[in-house]
Design brief:
Elements lengths: L1 H19 L6 E5 L5 E3 H15 L4 E6 L6 E2 L6 E9 L3 H4 L3 E8 L10 E9 L3 E7 L2 E8 L2 E6 L10 E4 L8 H12 L3 E2 L5 H11 L1 E5 L12 H14 L3 E3 L19 E4 L1 H10 L6
Parallel strand pairs: 3-5, 11-12, 11-13
Antiparallel strand pairs: 1-2, 3-4, 5-6, 6-7, 7-8, 8-9, 9-10, 13-15, 14-15
The chain binds 6-O-phosphono-beta-D-fructofuranose (F6P) and manganese (II) ion.
């Protein structure tokens, strides 16, 4: 039940983060290791998650998008946690949805996709929900005052795709990728883009479809970070019956050489992911 205690802690901290957002909308002086400006809410969420997760006996280490290096627990433990404390935090300025992403690895970080044993995200929308994945099961819960009420025991991606959403400026997309998007539009998929990965992925799980942040002109590695964002969300989507790719293979088959390494990330229904891999087969940076 040690993974369960990690999920429980994330639910408790998620509630605290949600209620702290209103007073933490200003920018701090600092930037994170990826060069992004930090809001007071990013720093608050990171501090609280690190403190509460490292206090668990099962947690050996904590790393996050907001810190350069991994923090080891004094007592040791089995699990190495990688977090995006406040995903899509620039949405705090415009009052749009955001999330928290947690990856639970059984190897020291940086760790590859096959070292993931569990993952979770919290979505701060009109309501706060949490999706957890472990041992082949994906569960969606409502979070209220830190306690969880199960909404769906066995969350499965809808088989009839409805939405797509991709980041990056369209003129910066590789032509093969732009052609793929035009192709899936012809299949009557419609655009939905929240600007926060957690919100976009939750939408894809709910309605079916595909979300991604592609390779773009001048940045073939895209924007999203593998360890903190790409891999945990791929683990959740694949556990829910969907698929993931970096453009050529499942994200869960990739290795991570640097903690803050970026990669193109695509998540959604298997049929759409396979078509994307076929469309990008001849592409090289
Ligand atoms: O964490 C990075 C992130 O905020 C994701 O949540 C989101 O998918 C993406 O960046 C949005 O990027 P852009 O502002 O370029 O659309
Ligand atoms: Mn993020």
């Amino acid at each position: 039940m040690t993974v369960e205690s990690i999920f429980e802690t994330v639910a408790t901290v998620g509630s605290k983060i949600q209620s702290a957002l209103g007073e933490r909308r200003s920018y701090e002086e600092g930037r994170n290791p990826s060069g992004e400006r930090q809001l007071a809410a990013d720093v608050y969420a990171d501090d609280l998650l690190g403190e509460r997760l490292l206090a668990l006996d099962s947690v050996a280490a904590y790393a996050s998008e907001e810190q350069e290096t991994v923090t080891e627990s004094e007592g040791g433990g089995t699990y190495h946690i990688a977090c995006d404390p406040l995903d899509g935090s620039s949405n705090l300025t415009s009052n749009n949805a955001m999330g928290t992403i947690v990856g639970v690895y059984d190897q020291p970080l940086p760790a590859p996709g096959d070292a993931l044993v569990a993952a979770a995200y919290v979505l701060y929308g009109p309501i706060t929900t949490m999706v957890t994945a472990s041992e082949g099961e994906t569960t969606e819960s409502l979070i209220e005052d830190g306690s969880r009420t199960v909404l769906s025991e066995d969350l499965t991606i809808s088989e009839d795709p409805v939405t797509y959403g991709f980041g990056g400026r369209i003129p910066d997309w590789p032509p093969a990728f732009a052609d793929y998007v035009a192709d899936i539009e012809d299949d009557r998929l419609k655009l939905r883009y929240a600007g926060a990965m957690v919100a976009d992925v939750n939408q894809v799980l709910t309605y079916g479809g595909i979300f991604g942040y592609p390779m773009v002109e001048g940045r073939p590695e895209g924007k999203l970070r593998l360890q903190f964002e790409g891999l945990p969300m791929a683990y959740i989507v694949e556990t829910a019956g969907g698929a993931s790719t970096d453009g050529s293979r499942s994200l869960l088959e990739t290795t991570v050489s640097r903690l803050h390494e970026r990669s193109p990330v695509f998540l959604g229904n298997g049929s759409l992911v396979t078509r994307l891999e076929d469309a990008m087969a001849d592409w090289s940076p």
